[in-house]
Every structure is written in C-alpha cells, then in structure tokens.
Amino acid sequence: MKIAAIFVGIIILAITLPAITGGLFDFRTDTLEEAFVFDTAAGETNQTVQLAEELWDGSVAYADIASNDTSEIPLPTSYNETTRGLLVTNILASTGHILTVEYNTSGLDEYAGAEVGATKIPLAVVAAVIILPLALIVGFFVSRR
User: Fold this and answer.
1) Distances (CA, A) of 30 to 33, 55, 81, 102, 117
2) CB atoms < 10 A from the CB of 5, how many?
3) Which is nearest to 63 in space by CA: 96, 93, 94, 36?
4) Residues 101 and 49 sit within 8 Å (Cβ to Cβ)
5) By the 8 A CB rule, do 41 and 91 touch?
6) To the nearest whole percent, how much of the chain has pLDDT over 90?
7) In 3D, which of 1, 7, 21, 25 has the Cα closest to residue 105?
8) How do the domains of the chain map onto residue ranges?
C-alpha cells in the first residue's frame, strides 16, 4: 500500500511539473511593454527598435509585437544583445506605425542567488521523478531476499 501511495505521489508530481516550470518562469522574468512610433520609407519593410531592457535569453521567442495597422503582422526577427536592438520585419512600407512590443526580461538581476536556485528546481523535480521509482523498485527486490 505504501508503494502505491508513493507512485501516486510521483504521478501527481509529474503532472504538476509544467505548472512548476511555468511558475518559475514567471518568478524569474518581468514582462515589459513599450510603444514605438516611426514612419517607414518607400520599399522599407523592416525597422530596428531599441528596447529599454535586455530581452530574456536574447531570444525573439520572448517578444510579441502588435501594430496599430491591422493589415500588417509585424514579426520579431533578430535581436542584438549589445545594442538591445530588436529587428521587426513584415511591416508596411511608406506609412506611419505605432508598434507595441511586449517582452520578457530578467526579473532577478539584483538577486543572483535566487536566479541560480530557481534554475535548479526543475532539475531537482525531474530527478526526483526518475530516482524515486528506481529506489522503490530496488528496495522492493532487496527486501524480498
């Protein structure tokens, strides 16, 4: 009966792992929103915007862009970590734009210890999900001797 309870606990832990990692992501990051107003020249469909803070992990996957013009779908294409420049493509040429960029940035810059600890929690949970069943199986066979 004790083994069944432990297995149920491990299953519950495995099911909650996505929520744990999502919560840790929210804990480790801040979400910022900035508006950029500019005009594009004829034939120009790209624009680099300068973010106030560094983009999380230097990845455009953490940036969402909306435009005041619903006929265009602006896309974050590349990011320069040195200048914090985000290249936005797929915008209309010869028009004025108001782009709203919502992006994640590090929320724990001032708390390096919390950042280090938060990065290890998912690893510890996964290790527990793998090691506990193995320890139970080994314990079961050792106790049968």
Assistant:
1) 10, 10, 17, 10, 17
2) 9
3) 36
4) yes
5) no
6) 41
7) 25
8) 2-143
What secondary structure, in 3-state letters, does 118-134 show?
A: HHHHHHHHHHHHHHHHH
pLDDT at 58 over 80: yes
DSSP class per residue in 67-105: ES-TT---EEEEEETTTTEEEEES--SSSEEEEEEEEEE
* pLDDT over 90 (residue 6): no
**Residue 46 near residue 86, CB atoms below 8 Å:** no
Rounded CA-CA distance 114/28 in Å is: 8
- Dig out the tokens for 87 from the structure: 């290249």
Tell me the whole-structure pTM to 2 decimals: 0.70
